């Protein structure tokens, strides 16, 4: 597929994905409309260009930005949208302190976890879209450090680093009844063992949580 646009996003086809949670032993199907997803995680150079900030502990323009919270990612999406003349997807609700997503907005946003997993799998049903050493930076091959984006093989839809290198924030709440506002992280990171670098693995993080193996990539809705 690999249909790029000038903003570096790729067209992802509609489909259905079945999400699962090992903790609750629950699974649920999600139907998805077409959308667009960035070929790479947001880099430090991109983040600095849009926000003027350099939060990462490792330094390098083509390294994935890390040390960013979920809120940092939301603010980046809105700032990038305004910069591109698009309608921001998010606004902060003063009554709850949470963010509200406007699905009709044409601006940049975080993928939902269903969108993330659908894109990661790229039409496959396996835990990974290739041999792990060929597609991901993880504990066994990363030399315990982060790496430039795009250094491993992409999946069939032209998406790089979907597994390994940095965990990626998604829009979704992990489990509101148990963990409140905690959001879902996907993909595994450079310091993780192989079992964390699978398409179905879910991790949670507080929206203010920042650490050196967590970043994000951007998505856009496709007008219907």
From TrEMBL:
It comes from the Bacteria. This is Formylglycine-generating enzyme family protein. PANTHER family: FORMYLGLYCINE-GENERATING ENZYME, SULFATASE MODIFYING FACTOR 1, 2. It comes from Streptomyces celluloflavus. Residues 7-220 form the Sulfatase-modifying factor enzyme-like domain.
